[in-house]
Each structure stands twice: as structure tokens, then as C-alpha cells.
Design goal:
A 4-stranded mixed sheet has the order 1-2-4-3. It is globular and about 70 Å long. Helices cover 69% and strands 4% of the residues. Strand 3 and strand 4 form a beta hairpin.
Length: 437
């Protein structure tokens, strides 16, 4: 019988943090739903004199509310079940039980290979319950809600294929990362927090290079943008800014969804511009140029580089804290693990897992800070695009169309935006663009 210790400080932090995060999410989603009920069918005054905003007719506004409400009412049971599963797995002693089962299969961790197989099997099996529970909610969202509102083009066969591909890719990446992690934990008992942060950072950079070349093509087809006005204008923008890429590609996003987007992917020679085919079909050439000018603004204003410079030292600090927590015998006993002090060093992957559970329960309080910085960068990128293209109206009309086509909310509560939005709302972006003229 494996029992957690409710009076244990790590268990208290985990339980309080997890439950508080759950309650905060539900409060924010509730006020967002109440706001939609209040504003249903109401066009914001900022859009009433913009011709492109005529797409927000009564039917469209009602459709936005209905779509967001459907997502909300689907999220409620999913979040409740998710909380119940999380608490059950911890409070029932599932993790120490699973660890002992894995140890019987692989043998007690002692050296690199035994520790590696033990860790890999533990992490893989530990993720199964929550993954299985998420499946029916994912299917409901994809095949009921997204299809009802005209977004999903997914077939069940394609969904299964995507899930299998995603699982294989995830297992391969986990296997590689786990090997590096265990090598560091086994061979560098006192400095693994430094080296492990470096490994994680290097792994992220490698994924940036490999994603557009290896991973993304497993799921979508990427065809070079055909010669024409759009390619000429995008190429001119890139040359004007000294932005070099391996090409401009159209992704067959419409095969799965009607949602639209564009992004820059890769690093170095793998860097490329990707346009969803849905985006190309929805926007004019001027609007596409303005949207890409926004993305180029992130590059030219060094937003990603600045985020790295900020996050890297933060990650070192966080990893050091995880390292210190993983040395505590209280961490293991609190979660029901019968591990002696002598076993903590070779089994610190369990310590990392447990300390991550505790830390994750507290990350919700960081959301407003992270999103504030992200929204600030989005304003800057909007202004950069307006200055670059000398056509802020094109970006405004493009944003309006994207908001309309994706059924994005027009008047979310301010508190909800502060907590959850990484981008400013449509109204806020339009105001800022008009003031920049």
C-alpha cells in the first residue's frame, strides 16, 4: 500500500497549487462566458466605421458566441475529469506503485543502462492514464464542435494516423532526450542541473532545425509558393530586411482544418516561411504582405532572441531549484516513495518528475507576466509591419478577416485577456494601428 503524506509540505504545495489553478481557470472561463451572453450580437463601436468589418453581421456574431460557448461547455467536463485523474494518480500512490513495477521489470537502477530503461519505461507508462482520458474529449472537440462550425475536415482514419505518427515522434524524441538526461544525472551528481539545462536548450535548438525538414512533413505537404505577385512582394520584403530563408511554402492545412495561420519555422538553412493554404485563400495580396510584415517584425526586432536571453538564466535558476528539491528526502516520502537517502542520487529522475509536478501546479501565477511581454511584442510587430508596408489599413483588414474566419472573440473581459491572451485583442490592435498612422 502506497500512501501520500498529506501533512508533507511538497504535497500541500502540490494540492493547493493544483486546486487553485483549477479554480482560477474556471473563474476566468465563467466570466468570459457571462461576457459573451451579455454582448451577444453586439458589434464593438471601434469596428462600426470600418468597411471590412461588415463581415461581422448578426449571424457571424451569433456564430462566434455559439462556437466559444460550445468550446467552453466541452472544456468544463474535460477540466474536471483532468483534475480528478491528476489528484487520483497522486493520492492513490499510483506513481510509487508504477516505479516498483518498473524496477521489477528492469531491475533496480544501477548505472546508465539500467537507470535509462527504468526512467524511460516509468515516464512512458506514467503518461498513459491522462492520455487515454483525454481521447474522448479530443474526439468530441474535433468531430462534433469543429465540424459543426465548419472548421474540421478531418476523417477518423486521418485522425488515427496523426495520433500514431505523433506518438512515434514523441517516443523517439523522449528516448533521445532521456538518454542525455540520464547520462548527465548518473555521471554528474552535483552539477547535473547546469548540464541538464544546457542539454534542454541544445535539444530545443536542434528541434528548431529539424521540425520543418523532418517532423512537419510527416503531417502536411509543403509546396513552394508559385511565381507571381505574392511571391515577388514577399521576396522583396525579405530582401529589404536582409532576411534569408530556404523558401516560401504553402501548407495543405485545409486537409484537416479551416483555421488559418502563417509562421516562420526552422533555423539557419532550414529557416522557411510557411503559409496555410486557408490563409492564402482568405486574404488579399496586400493583407498577406502586411501579415508577413508582422512576422518579419518579430525577426527584425529580435523578439525571439530576447526571449532566449531572458528565459535561459530563468531556466538555470528553475533547474537549480529542482536540483535542490530533488535532494530532499521529504519529496519522495511525501509522494509515497520508499527510497532511502542513499538512493536519491541515482534515482533523481524520480525527483525531477515529482518536483516538476509540484512546480507545474504553481506555474499558473506566471501566466499574466508571460502574456504581458508577449502582447507588448505583438504591438511592436504590428507597428513594424505598418511602417514597413506603409499600409496599416491592409493589416487592419487582414486581422479583421482572420478574426472573422477563425470565429475569435471580439470583446473578451479585460481580466481574461490579462491572464490568458498572448496577443492583444482585435480591438486593441486596431486602436494601436490607427494611432500609429
Amino acid at each position: 500500500m502506497y500512501r501520500i503524506v498529506l501533512s508533507n509540505p511538497f504535497i500541500i504545495i502540490f494540492l493547493v497549487g493544483t486546486i487553485c489553478s483549477f479554480l482560477v481557470h474556471h473563474f476566468l472561463e465563467f466570466i468570459s462566458w457571462r461576457s459573451r451572453c451579455k454582448n451577444k450580437g453586439k458589434l464593438p463601436s471601434e469596428l462600426q466605421n470600418i468597411p471590412e468589418a461588415s463581415c461581422f453581421d448578426t449571424e457571424k456574431l451569433a456564430n462566434i458566441c455559439a462556437y466559444k460557448n460550445a468550446k467552453y461547455f466541452s472544456w468544463i467536463p474535460a477540466s474536471i475529469v483532468g483534475l480528478a485523474v491528476t489528484l487520483t494518480l497522486v493520492c492513490s500512490g499510483f506513481y510509487p506503485w508504477l516505479f516498483n513495477v518498473v524496477c521489477r521489470i528492469t531491475g533496480t537502477p544501477n548505472g546508465f543502462w539500467s537507470t535509462y530503461f527504468c526512467a524511460f519505461l516509468f515516464f512512458a507508462l506514467a503518461s498513459i492514464p491522462e492520455s487515454i482520458i483525454a481521447i474522448p474529449f479530443s474526439l468530441y472537440d474535433e468531430f462534433i464542435i469543429e465540424k459543426k462550425f465548419g472548421f474540421s475536415k478531418m476523417t477518423f482514419k486521418l485522425w488515427i494516423i496523426d495520433e500514431i505518427k505523433g506518438l512515434v515522434v514523441s517516443l523517439l524524441m523522449t528516448a533521445v532526450l532521456m538518454a542525455a538526461m540520464i547520462a548527465v544525472l548518473v555521471n554528474f551528481e552535483n552539477t547535473w542541473w547546469i548540464l541538464l539545462t544546457c542539454v534542454m536548450f541544445a535539444f530545443t535548438l536542434v528541434l528548431q532545425v529539424l521540425y520543418p525538414l523532418v517532423i512537419a512533413p510527416l503531417f502536411n505537404k509543403f509546396n513552394p509558393l508559385e511565381e507571381g505577385e505574392l511571391k515577388t512582394r514577399i521576396t522583396a520584403l525579405m530582401e529589404n530586411l536582409g532576411f534569408k530563408s530556404s523558401g516560401i511554402f504553402i501548407m495543405d492545412a485545409s486537409k484537416r482544418s479551416g483555421h488559418s495561420n502563417a509562421y516562420f519555422g526552422g533555423m539557419g538553412k532550414s529557416k522557411r516561411i510557411v503559409l496555410y493554404d486557408t490563409l492564402v485563400n482568405q486574404l488579399t495580396t496586400d493583407e498577406l504582405e502586411a501579415v508577413l510584415g508582422h512576422e518579419l517584425g518579430h525577426y527584425k526586432l529580435h523578439h525571439n532572441l530576447r526571449k532566449i536571453c531572458i528565459m535561459l538564466p530563468v531556466e538555470f535558476i528553475l533547474m537549480f531549484l529542482l536540483y535542490k528539491i530533488a535532494q530532499s528526502h521529504l519529496l519522495y516520502t511525501g509522494f509515497g516513495f520508499a527510497i532511502t537517502q542513499e538512493m536519491i542520487i541515482p534515482l533523481q529522475f524520480i525527483g525531477l518528475f515529482l518536483s516538476s509536478l509540484v512546480a507545474t501546479s504553481l506555474t499558473e501565477i506566471l501566466s499574466p507576466i508571460m502574456n504581458f511581454g508577449s502582447r507588448k511584442d505583438e504591438y511592436a510587430a504590428d507597428k513594424f509591419s505598418a511602417d514597413l508596408t506603409k499600409n496599416p489599413d491592409a493589416l487592419i483588414s487582414g486581422l479583421i478577416k482572420l478574426n472573422s474566419e477563425n470565429l475569435s472573440e471580439l470583446l473578451p473581459p479585460k481580466l481574461y485577456v490579462i491572464w490568458n491572451y498572448s496577443h492583444p485583442t482585435l480591438i486593441e490592435r486596431i486602436k494601436a494601428l490607427k494611432n500609429s498612422k
